[in-house]
Amino acid sequence: MAPYFETIKISFADVDTDPGVNTLQFLDACDDLVRLFDILGPAFSMVQSDLNGNITKVRAVAKECGTLQGLVEKKQEEKTAAEKTATEGLMWLFRALSFTCEALQIVQKEKEKTDKDRKELSAAFTESYKLKLKPFHNFVVQGFFSAAMIACPSRGPFYAQLAVADPATWKDVTAGQLETLNVELDKWLEALASIIGRMKAVYGEDPKNKKKPLIY
């Protein structure tokens, strides 16, 4: 085993984005992101399932659509049934990615603070959920997410398990390992946020409600 960022197939920072976001590279990076929820715990199983399901929908048309922008921008009447399914799946995938990215960036902004002053994962994910996903969910799903936020692990063990080779030894994590993790995590999140920003612009506003974007 190895620290998390030594095990990923491809970082979001290494995904080609010119002339558009490379579909296959992006999906491989998403596969690795899903593994983060193994550490966050079983309360996030529904999130994992949704992520995996939407990744599968997009992967089904990846060879035909080399870039994410190409998939979305293809005229609706020219899309196959699989491409239409993938376009909606990609939208929901980006909503979940935006939620995850925002939550971890909230935590990362406080990494220089003392342990007692840092915002915990539960608070960060709750704040991010209200901004990024809650507007798209009904009351039943909102209730599930409220329960999941409460079940978030503490920040310390979560970061330590990402930083060490064996999660079972997280209590032995060193300051150097955490510093390396923070550098890699900041780079990874910055690249993911950039990709999310690109796709927000592509999806644009909800045609049924021009004041509401399709992805927050």
UniProtKB/TrEMBL annotation:
| Any one of the GO CC terms | cytosol
Q: Which Gene3D superfamilies match?
A: Glycolipid transfer protein (1.10.3520.10)
**What one GO molecular function would you report for this record?**
ceramide 1-phosphate transfer activity
Q: Where are the transmembrane segments?
A: none
Supply the Pfam families for this chain.
Answer: GLTP (PF08718)
Q: Where is the Glycolipid transfer protein domain?
A: 21-163
Q: What organism does the record attribute this protein to?
A: Mycena maculata
Q: InterPro entries attached here?
A: GLTP_sf, Glycolipid_transfer_prot_dom
- Entry keywords, A to Z: Transport
Instruction: Tell me what this protein is called.
Output: Glycolipid transfer protein domain-containing protein
